[in-house]
Amino acid sequence: ASSLVLASALWCPDIGHGLDFALKASLTGLQAMLVYAIARDLPDAGGLDRILIGAFGGGLALAFLHTLADGPIYRLLNPGIAPGDLNTAINRQVVTLSLMALPAAACLQALIRNTGGWIAAALLLVATFTVGMTSFSQSGPAGLLIGVAVVALTWAAPRTSLWLLALVGIAAILLMPFGLIALSAQDGVRSFDWEEAAVAQRLDIWIAVAHKVMEAPWLGHGIEAARFIEDWSTTTEHVNRTNFHHPHNAALQIWLEFGALGAGLAALAWAAICLPLARWTQRPQAVAAGTLAATFVVAMISYGLWQSWWLAGFATLPVIFIFLPGRNPGRAP
């Protein structure tokens, strides 16, 4: 996969930019693997569960301050920041908290124990969702809701839930462009062009990208291609620009940049992450499945794959999973 990412820079519309991003992504992956290898050999959490709870609580308080008072710290550190950039910065914080909420809640419940622990964990999740709803982020709260639902399903029916998680992810990765092309062919009047939640804008971008994928279906157009492509074969009615920074959909971005080869590798990677969770004990298994589901939902409707904070989040999750309360030693995926 790393070789494909690096090689794809050679057929990127801007080779220099492609090489820069390919090297960044590959180095981040190597760093994550190194940290993971070190962390999984540690004998116990060593207090990292308490660090996670404290860091999460501090982050949640800051996010609440930013949403309530319109980002005072961001404004202090970045004088003259544009309103759109400010909202984006706050949204990233909200999304990160939404994806870390389930592991933090599990650590809190294990620390307090008994009924009080469950109440504290529930209150933490409610607080995270509430902060998300007071921001401009829609993907963060949506991902958290899906994650909680998957936790409940995995707790009740672990085998079924894990297979569903794996199969739904594989299907979404492999079929995304074909589904969108079929939708555009069958629904010519675009009856799903809702202004709410930026659905119309997303469909504009997704359908344009899906058609562009078919022009280079096997190896794609190279890393970061969407930033430079301007000759889209479909019209965009709700997006007033000819190029996009990214497709706002991880599956489409993989197809656009790396083609069917990249999509196949991504599908295999998703299965390799989800299915080994079957060997975990109940609590960490459910929390990990819910967190993966939440991350997948956000990745399919929002940010670009190569944003630094997003890559850092991907790299952090496996390490956090190692220290989930009750996890069987040596069973990290």
Overall mean confidence score, pLDDT: 89
Straight-line N-to-C gap: 17 Å
Class computed from helices, strands and strand pairing: mainly alpha
Radius of gyration: 20 Å
Strand content of the residues, in percent? Answer: under 5%
Which stretches are low in confidence, meaning pLDDT under 50 for 5 or more residues running?
Answer: 328-333
Task: Give the gist of this structure.
This protein is mainly alpha-helical. The protein contains twelve helices and no strands.
Structure description:
With 333 residues, this protein is mainly α. The chain has twelve helices and no strands. It has helices at residues 2-8, 15-40, 48-69, 72-77, 83-112, 114-134, 139-156, 158-186, 199-213, 250-274, 282-301, 308-322. The longest helix is centred in the N-terminal third of the chain and has 30 residues, at 83-112. It is globular, with a radius of gyration of 20 Å. The protein starts with a helix and ends in an 11-residue tail after the last helix. The model is unreliable at 328-333 (pLDDT under 50).
Topology:
Layout lengths: L1 H7 L6 H26 L7 H22 L2 H6 L5 H30 L1 H21 L4 H18 L1 H29 L12 H15 L36 H25 L7 H20 L6 H15 L11
Helix pairs in contact: 1-2, 2-12, 3-5, 3-6, 5-6, 5-7, 5-11, 5-12, 6-7, 7-8, 7-11, 8-9, 8-10, 8-11, 9-10, 10-11
